[in-house]
Task: inverse folding
């Protein structure tokens, strides 16, 4: 099985599946709004063994995990939003979306794998299945090192934005990760866009109830998001939070079963805004065709977005903005 996956990835890479672009500097249209923040040993955004041991006493591995990130927008009076990129990488369309969000937010975009502007699904998949930081570990209670790094990253953003709440947008690879970050009381709004990761092992996909987060992270998320106090007693030290979810109805990469599971478990704390089959054809008031959505479209907020009037992805973007502003600007 491992050999088969390796062959498929190699074929994808050699056939040019995805655009493999390696760049260090931001392009001019992005550099005007965003800046790249490099991390080095000793920086606040570097996860160390000591950081991990604060929550997992028996963890005994050597860790020094660091990720560069982008800050888009200089006005820190605007509430902070963390935008997590998809499996192909932190590519142009993701940065474009971050720039769009800066009209209302200060946007932080961590570079979780590869290099800026890389847009390669095979390369991203390769990084995911072989990088230890994405693998659930028993010593972390089933959590991952990437989640631990993101927790520290969220904590640093909270210090930079005192008295402001934080929103997190997950997409595809990172679609369910915001759930694992609800342990921070300042995270009050999360967006789950086509949660995809069911891979709990290197070589196998999980079921509909597998969100690639630990059991304890999932239980805490339900306590913050589900308003049913009998089923999930609230945590006094943490305010209730809200989640917004979206996906394309015909998307087979992000299974509908996972989305339905979130709806059942989170109740009214999960705002369900799936793009329905009826929305795949966009027409004007006179019935003239404006644009159509290909049946295999996966990315609801980024790659599937079109600059087309009444396009459902643009409608969802506007809803996400309003959803975040409703709480974060308070």
Result:
């Amino acid at each position: 099985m491992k050999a088969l996956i390796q062959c498929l990835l190699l074929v994808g890479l050699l056939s040019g599946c995805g655009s493999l672009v390696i760049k260090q500097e931001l392009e001019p249209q992005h550099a005007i709004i965003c800046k790249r923040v490099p991390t080095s040993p000793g920086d606040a955004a570097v996860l160390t063994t000591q950081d991990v041991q604060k929550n997992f006493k028996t963890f005994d591995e050597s860790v020094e995990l660091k990720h560069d990130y982008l800050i888009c927008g200089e006005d820190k009076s605007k509430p902070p939003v963390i935008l997590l990129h998809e499996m192909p990488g932190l590519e142009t369309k993701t940065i474009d979306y971050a720039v769009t969000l800066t009209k209302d937010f200060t946007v932080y975009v961590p570079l979780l794998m590869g290099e800026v502007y890389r847009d390669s699904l095979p390369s991203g998949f390769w990084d995911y299945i072989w990088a230890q930081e994405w693998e659930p570990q028993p010593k972390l209670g089933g959590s991952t090192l990437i989640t631990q790094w993101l927790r520290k990253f969220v904590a640093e953003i909270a210090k930079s934005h005192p008295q402001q709440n934080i929103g997190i947008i997950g997409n595809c690879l990172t679609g369910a990760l915001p759930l694992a970050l609800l342990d921070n009381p300042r995270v009050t709004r999360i967006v789950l866009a086509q949660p995809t990761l069911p891979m709990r092992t290197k070589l196998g996909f999980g079921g509909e109830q597998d969100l690639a987060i630990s059991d304890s992270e999932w239980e805490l998320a339900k306590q913050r998001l589900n308003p049913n106090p009998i089923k999930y007693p609230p945590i006094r030290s943490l305010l209730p939070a809200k989640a917004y979810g979206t996906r394309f109805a015909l998307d087979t990469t992000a299974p509908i079963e996972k989305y339905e599971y979130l709806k059942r478990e989170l109740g009214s704390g999960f705002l369900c805004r799936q793009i329905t089959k009826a929305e795949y054809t966009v027409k004007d008031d006179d019935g003239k065709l404006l644009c159509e959505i290909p049946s295999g479209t996966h990315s609801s907020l980024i790659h599937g977005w079109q600059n087309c009037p009444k396009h459902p992805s643009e409608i969802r973007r506007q809803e996400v903005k309003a959803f975040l502003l409703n709480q974060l600007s308070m």
Remarks:
- The domain at 2-328 is CATH 3.40.50.1820 (Rossmann fold).
- Residues 312-328 form the longest helix (17 residues).
